[in-house]
Specification:
Blueprint: E1 2-6, E2 12-16, H1 21-33, H2 47-58, E3 62-64, H3 69-80, E4 84-89, H4 100-108, E5 112-115, E6 124-128, E7 134-139, H5 144-153, E8 161-166, H6 172-184, E9 189-193, E10 196-199, H7 215-228, E11 234-240, H8 251-256, E12 260-264, E13 273-279, E14 286-290, H9 298-308, E15 311-315, H10 327-337, E16 343-345, E17 349-352, E18 364-365, H11 371-377, E19 387-390, H12 402-408, E20 412-416
Parallel strand pairs: 2-11, 3-4, 7-8, 14-15, 18-19
Antiparallel strand pairs: 1-19, 1-20, 4-6, 5-6, 8-10, 9-10, 11-13, 12-13, 15-17, 16-17
Helix pairs in contact: 1-2, 1-3, 1-6, 2-3, 3-5, 4-5, 5-6, 7-9, 9-11
């Protein structure tokens, strides 16, 4: 299927954002390790969270997590400390995404895991048992989901966990998010040194919990405000907190450089409220930024800057090649269709110096089974009316009602055969 998008004359809408996938998936694992009970409030209804919830509820002999990379990593660690033997698998793309770093770390602290296919990749056969834990060393420049997966099972290991991270530590806000939720559930887990996290063997306690809405989802609405650049436009986004622990809450600061101002209805620390956006009419002419701590926003800012004619140099992109697709390659290819020539450097950097080429008439944006490709490119309809998006249903991975929300904001969306 293909969607054809036409923009509204102006933006004036209140959008109920989806719940945070990052918080939901971490909370579900910790909730299960705490013994279960009533589920947290405002859980995400996205594919990744539903897969995780079903796996934890049913604990089947074979768990197919589809394309949910977070579920693959978190559930692998969870199953390693949960009695029983289970196989965990996923889509063809998931079976190409490396998991050896996590498996090696779990094996080092006593986990019984074997590869059911190619060495270093899913599917995995996991035989759960009590783990001793103790000291563990892992590279800090791997996916933070490996690190979070290990941390979350730390409190239920007999010796706790002392995790030392070597080299550069990437996506640190996601690690801090994990530690925050763990401590909210009664664990004792903290940075005990600049490169070391200590988790004491203190069991979790079940508690009521409400999930904040998703700052990653908010970034696409910030993008729309930046692209439309009309001072009369107004967007309100619900359920976000000032001082949020979500790493992608940095969107408010970066987008302020592109002219989008953020105002909170309430600034009570950690209390979800409504965020109101407007455009100031001012923006930088060039943007340089290190996305090592917020890689999920790279697509949003690459597309935004190119469309606004803002030259950029973005670094810290080394994890993008092992996401749902090779996001660096996908961005280069799809923006070229629209006439923008990007440069990649060593799989860690993307830049644009203003070079353009002849756009492809009637080109459709391919999404590569990647939800963030669809959502980052959709706002471009504000600058390219009639923009076509292939396989738009991929947004269900994190933001199932994205297209409904665009219609609410006045976008025209018609379906065609892609």
């Amino acid at each position: 299927m293909q969607y054809i998008l036409t923009p509204p004359e102006r933006l004036d809408a209140t959008i109920k954002l989806p719940a945070s996938k990052s918080i939901s998936n971490r909370t579900l694992i910790i909730h299960a390790l705490a013994g279960g009970g009533p589920l947290p409030e405002n859980l995400s209804d996205c594919d990744d969270t539903r897969v995780t919830m079903a796996a934890l509820r049913d604990l089947p002999p074979v768990t197919d997590i589809g394309a949910a990379g977070t579920a693959m990593r978190f559930l692998t660690a969870y199953l390693a400390v949960t009695p029983g033997e289970r196989l965990i698998t996923g889509t063809a793309r998931m079976l190409q995404r490396p998991i050896g770093v996590l498996v090696d770390a779990l094996r080092y602290i006593g986990a019984d895991i074997e590869y059911a296919g190619e060495e270093g990749f899913p599917p995995l056969r996991v035989r759960g048992r009590q783990l001793d834990g103790g000291p563990l060393v892992i590279a800090g420049d791997v996916s933070s989901q490996y690190i979070s997966a290990l941390l979350m099972i730390g409190p239920v290991m007999s010796g706790g966990l002392e995790l030392r991270l070597t080299g550069d530590i990437i996506s640190r806000p996601y690690i801090d998010l994990t530690l925050w939720i763990m401590n909210e559930y009664g664990a004792e887990a903290e940075w005990s040194d600049i490169d070391t996290i200590t988790v004491k063997p203190k069991p979790y306690r079940a508690r009521p919990w409400t999930i904040e809405n998703d700052w990653s989802a908010a970034s696409y609405w910030y993008e729309m405000m930046a692209l439309n650049a009309n001072r009369d436009d107004r967007l309100a986004l619900t359920g976000l907190a000032d001082g949020s622990m979500q790493g992608d809450s940095s969107a408010r600061y970066i987008f302020s450089l592109l002219g989008v101002k953020t105002a909170f209805d309430s600034t009570a620390p950690g209390t979800p409220t409504t965020v109101r956006l407007r455009h100031t009419g001012h923006r930088l002419m060039k943007l340089e930024y290190d996305f090592v701590n917020s890689p999920d926003m790279v697509q949003t800012f690459v597309v935004t800057c190119a469309a606004l004619g803002i030259r950029f140099r973005f670094t810290g992109l080394q994890t993008l090649k092992i996401k749902e697709t090779d996001r660096i390659e996908a961005l280069v290819r799809e923006l070229r269709k629209l006439g923008y020539v990007l440069r990649e450097r060593e799989g860690r950097e993307l830049s644009w110096d203003g070079e353009q080429c002849e756009p492809q008439p009637g080109a459709a944006i391919d999404t590569y089974k990647d939800h963030r490709m669809a959502m980052a490119f959709a706002p471009l309809a504000l600058r390219h009316p009639g923009l076509r998006i292939n396989d738009p249903e991929v947004v269900t991975k994190s933001y199932p009602h994205f297209w409904d929300d665009l219609r609410l904001a006045g976008f025209g969306i018609s379906a065609a055969e892609g």
